[in-house]
Amino acid sequence: MRRSIRPVRVLLLAAALAAAAPLAAQESTNYSYTWWNAAEPGWGYNLSHQGDLLYGTWYSYAEDGKPMFLTVEGLRNEDGSFSGPVYRVAGTPFQQINGSQAFTAVTEVGSAQMSFAEDGSLELTYTIDGTTQTRTLTRFTFSDNPPVCVGTTESRASASNYSDLWWNPTEAGWGLTLSHQGDVIFVLWYTYGEGGRDQWISASTLVRQPDGSYAGALQRPNSGTPLLQIAGAATTFPVPEVGSASLSFSDGENGSFTYTLDGVTQTKAITRFVAVGADQPKPLCRVEEGGGGGGGGSGEGCFPDNMPTGKTLDYRITYIDGATATEMVEVMGPTMFNGFSAIRSEQRQPNGDYNEFFQRYEGANIQYLGDRSYTNNDLVAETTFAANPTKPIAPVLNTVYDETYPGTSRLVPLGLSNAITYRDSLVFRRRESVTVPAGTFDNACYVERILEITSSGFTTRIDFEMWLDPEVGEVKSIGTGTSVAGPFRTTKELTDFNIPQ
What we know:
This protein is mainly β. It has helices at 9-18, 334-337, and strands spanning 2-4, 27-29, 33-36, 44-50, 53-61, 67-76, 82-91, 103-116, 122-128, 131-139, 148-152, 164-167, 175-181, 184-192, 198-208, 214-219, 241-251, 254-261, 264-272, 282-286, 312-319, 324-331, 342-348, 354-362, 365-375, 378-385, 390-392, 400-411, 416-436, 439-455, 458-469, 473-483, 486-498. A hairpin with a 7-residue loop joins β12 (164-167) and β13 (175-181). The protein starts with a strand and ends with a strand.
């Protein structure tokens, strides 16, 4: 083993890799992902695949049981596998990192070889401190439609999936491995603690917020099974919460990381880690289109997929007692939700109090992101979800889509949060004509929907009749239900709309 104070070797490899011949194809096979063994939860292995470099960030535990991270720098072999040295790094305690190199020492502790089977699994063979082991890993997935990663030489500025290795190049030595699936980002943060010792912190559910950022709790294991002894769960669960974090992105290649850890709050600029030249492929992860059927813009769906920025819909809401309110729906565009068509609805009462509802389009589905309530223009309550309620743009006739989603309801002035359960059941019955103040719509989908929200032991249920025009959107709905205040009925009718060309 050898000890030196120098940059991690992957940075020195960049110049040599940049000189390699470019791939002819615009997209190529790419192994970037977070990998694990489901029978051994508590440790993980993240790969960033760039050109002929497979850079691994390995999250595990040292001989004393404390968290440690290793780095693996694998270069492609003739047989398609990758192999190279394994390093352990020491650095500046995270709270003291301030615009300069974060690592202070690098120790070569072994070697590793990575190969990929036909079933997509990763075989990791390594020799650490004289001990050789082999482990079989699979991609870590936690959503129904996880992303697929390819290699690309194109700009990733427009990317809306942020799975990758991120860093601050002026502070080399710490970074974030992000696994972005659906509306959740799973984070593994490698950095340094007291005395400059390596450590890692996780954020298992940074959830998309209405403003497009991702926020949630930080967790750090107290201890775990040393790497060479793991033969089952590597640590105990649940992992203790030690702080909070948020991520926001100005585009697909740049963002910021804000955290509170051990009483320290800081914000860091981050960018995708790049170690190869512009003509070498780098990871781009994305969700494959599919599910839900055709698009509303072609008249095949029920919810429209033609959502140009600036589109507006105006509604009149009439309650059971004859009182009225208004609703305005506006497509905000990618400036609000990072490349997705973002829809904001505002229901406003005559006294000025209002509710905001946020949605977006994800492939062939429309997703409900959450809501906020305001009194005297002050935020008083908000609801968010770990997995966002989803409806298909083009539901299949007489097929019931019935899903239940967990969420959190927060009373802002009191600082109180309650768990909620949100059940959404929808079935498309037929097409028919419906007339409202905005006109007559001959091809509307007639949809029956049940919405149930349970919180603090009480369930509010609303049974809807809905008419949806595949070009315009919701035209009319009638909702009947019971709440804490008693029975209610609302009739919502489209009064005006604007679809920019």
